[in-house]
Amino acid sequence: MTDTDLKSKILDAALECMIELGIAGVTTKAIAARAGVNEVTLFRRFGNKTNLLRSVLSREAEMVATQGFHYTGNLREDLIGITRAYLDLTARHPGLIPMMLSELPRHPELMEVFEGPKSLIFTAGQIIVRYQMEGKLKPEFPFQTLATLLGPIIVMRLGQRLLPQDLPPHEIQAEQLVDFHLHGRSRPSGEQGL
């Protein structure tokens, strides 16, 4: 097994354990067992549990960022890119966002593990601010804009788990979410800019 393969195997195991047990509940022993490695291997590679968990979330954040967190000058397409990347993340790891939402309020001391996700939020916020400065979006706190764009995904993903199993799953469309979002957030054609 190559060094890269071993690292991926450890990070995958850590992510599965985080989703199952929560950040506060996960142990290096559980991660090592799931990865099929010695616990010492984890400490040799990552130093401590915090660094390991930070690496897991940073890897996931980097994957999301490469999918669609870029300013292109096309508001709709940029928001679709952000939305699609977030949809892909929630499809790949359905329990990740609910776990994060549950853990953060109860364990603020774990905030340092969330560097990767915080960087994603900051990058998306910068894109939103740029469009606000161009007058293409109404001025408001950028995180509020982001929350109203991505919040429906969280609600829909959680809600799908409550539906009867015999119903076909509803495919969430990034384009439709963005169009609904822009209808309420786009600056009306006669309104003045910032």
Write a compact overview of the structure shown.
This protein has 194 residues and is mainly α. The chain has 9 helices and no strands.
Task: Tell me the layout of helices and strands.
Blueprint lengths: L2 H19 L6 H8 L3 H8 L2 H20 L6 H18 L3 H11 L8 H19 L8 H21 L11 H12 L9
Helix pairs in contact: 1-2, 1-4, 3-4, 4-5, 4-7, 5-8, 5-9, 7-8, 8-9
Overview of this protein structure:
This protein is an all-alpha fold and 194 residues long. It has a domain at 54-163 and 170-185: Tetracycline Repressor, domain 2. The protein has nine helices and no strands. The chain has helices at 3-21, 28-35, 39-46, 49-68, 75-92, 96-106, 115-133, 142-162, 174-185. Helix 1 crosses helix 2 (28-35) and helix 8 packs across helix 9 (174-185). This is HTH tetR-type domain-containing protein. Pfam families: TetR_N. InterPro entries: Homeodomain-like_sf, HTH-type_TetR-like_transc_reg, HTH_TetR, Tet_transcr_reg_TetR-rel_C_sf.
Which labels suit this protein?
single chain, 0% strand, DNA-binding transcription factor activity, 194 residues, transcription, mainly alpha, HTH_TetR, Tetracycline Repressor, domain 2, transcription regulation, HTH tetR-type domain-containing protein
